[in-house]
Design brief:
The chain has helices spanning 15-25, 74-88, 103-111; strands at residues 4-7, 36-41, 45-51, 57-65, 93-99, 115-120, 130-136. It is an alpha+beta fold. The protein binds coenzyme A.
Length: 138
């Protein structure tokens, strides 16, 4: 990754990130809420996390790599960076949910040491199931 960035609670989202967010997820997330943190590389990728207030948990809300840069290890590198930063914040447990059909994302989570620990039936509006993943930071 080239230029690393961090966005904390209340940060405005830069234009390139809002654009990537819209292309990947339809609706951009908007300014970060009080419990949200994001890390990434400028123009390449980002990951948005919700940080537990009183518990040492963080939930991965969104992760995206620019389409033309995918399958080159950026996702892996970003995940490693986030884990280091979250660990420094005292986070011990990482959680996420993902569409069961999202093979690239599930491959990234599997390869990054996450383990599936549940399934939420018909979780998404279109009826698709969500796979629940968890990772304990060492
Ligand atoms: C999910 C995503 C972030 C992965 O980023 P990436 O930079 O392509 O990931 P990496 O190159 O680090 O690859 C990670 C793993 O996924 C695998 N992978 C990447 N693209 C894949 C694909 N299209 N099909 C299957 N596996 C794939 C890689 O081989 C690697 O696995 P390995 O370590 O076992 O070889 C990216 O595909 C993306 O932005 N998707 C759209 C947004 C999204 O769906 N986000 C997740 C839900 S929030």
């Amino acid at each position: 990754m080239k230029e690393f960035f961090h966005l904390g609670p209340g940060s405005e989202v830069p234009g390139w990130l809002e654009d990537l967010d819209r292309r990947c997820f339809g609706e951009p997330w908007g300014a970060l809420a009080g419990h949200e943190e994001a890390w990434g590389a400028v123009g390449e990728c980002f990951a948005l996390w919700a940080i537990g207030d009183t518990i040492q948990e963080a939930e991965l809300l969104r992760i995206a790599v620019e389409p033309e840069l995918r399958a080159r290890g950026h996702g892996h590198e970003l995940m490693k960076t986030c884990e280091g930063q979250l660990s420094r914040l005292g986070i011990r447990t990482l959680l996420l949910e993902v569409r069961v059909s999202n093979t690239p994302a599930r491959q990234l989570y599997d390869a990054s040491g996450w383990r599936q620990d549940g399934l939420r039936k018909a979780y998404y509006k279109d009826g698709e199931d969500a796979a629940l993943y968890r990772k304990e930071l060492g």
